[in-house]
Specification:
The protein is α+β, with helices and mostly antiparallel strands. The chain contains seven helices and eight strands, in the order E-E-E-H-E-H-E-E-H-E-E-H-H-H-H. GO terms for molecular function: transaminase activity.
């Protein structure tokens, strides 16, 4: 399904716990969204990771808030007294990405919250597949909403694509950083997660997800010059990673043991 596009009507409040200074904004549809700014320090690559990893999670049936494109007008900066926020808005003029705001959601507490083993295993498998380095005890990037666990914040996934020439060199990575995963102690069926999830992803899925990524987010000094070639490189990476998934599956099982 194509992503909806909304226009940012009002800047509500910054979320200063995020390194990229995301913010709650109101859209012209009266909805609230957590906006990830294209002009933040991580740049467009973080938005690519957020979009691609988030839509892969959705394809796997994992609980993900809706992602939407957000058109941001630099004029919105005029009403903000904070110079840092003003500069961030101005630098992000144009198309950005946001997650649906989940009202009343609370941050996941790894000490107090228990996630069913099946879901924990599925999330661990997913994060290993998309090379997500940012779901640790220090920063779980999970929310609890209506007593269910929701995945958020995938801008640090696909870490290999920073300075990437488009080759599938990293596709076979065992991803040893999975040992830091906040849900690893509860993931009691990682092999079962592999059996459940690996067959849900196809080349058509990856083609459709990468087709959502705007051309403007796929250009830069450290990327393949042609956006179409860049998309194809991502798709090939994911296909190769599926084919070589036994390495990261075994790494996760070993880390839990």
């Amino acid at each position: 399904m194509p992503l909806r596009t909304v226009n940012a009507a009002r800047y509500v409040t910054p979320l200063r716990e995020g390194g990229s200074l995301p913010a709650v904004i109101e859209g012209d549809d009266d909805g609230l969204y957590v906006l990830k700014f294209r002009g933040a320090g991580q740049g467009a690559k973080a938005l690519v990771a957020e979009l691609v990893a988030g839509e892969i999670a959705r394809a796997l049936g994992l609980p993900m808030p809706e992602l939407v494109f957000v058109q941001l007008d630099a004029e919105l900066a005029r009403t903000e007294p904070d110079p840092e926020i003003q500069e961030l808005i101005k630098a992000s003029d144009g198309l950005n990405l946001a997650l649906d705001y989940l009202p009343g959601a609370i941050n996941f507490d790894p000490v107090a919250e228990q996630v069913p083993g099946r879901l924990a295993s599925d999330i661990v498998w997913f994060d290993a597949f998309v090379s997500n380095v940012d779901r640790s005890f220090r920063n779980p990037n999970l929310l609890v909403w209506h007593r269910n666990t929701w995945l958020i914040d995938h801008g640090a996934a696909l870490y290999f694509h920073h300075g990437w020439d488009g080759s599938p060199t990293h596709a076979g990575s065992a991803f040893p950083m999975i040992r830091e995963h906040v849900l690893l102690p509860q993931a009691d069926d990682i092999a079962g997660a592999d059996a459940r999830l690996s067959g849900k992803l196809t080349r058509d899925d990856f083609d459709a997800i990468l087709a959502l990524v705007p051309d403007a987010w796929l250009v830069g000094a450290d990327t393949p010059a042609d956006p179409a070639a860049h998309r194809a490189a991502y798709v090939e990476h994911f296909m190769q990673r599926l084919a070589q998934r036994q390495r990261f599956v075994e790494e996760a099982i070993h880390a839990r043991a």
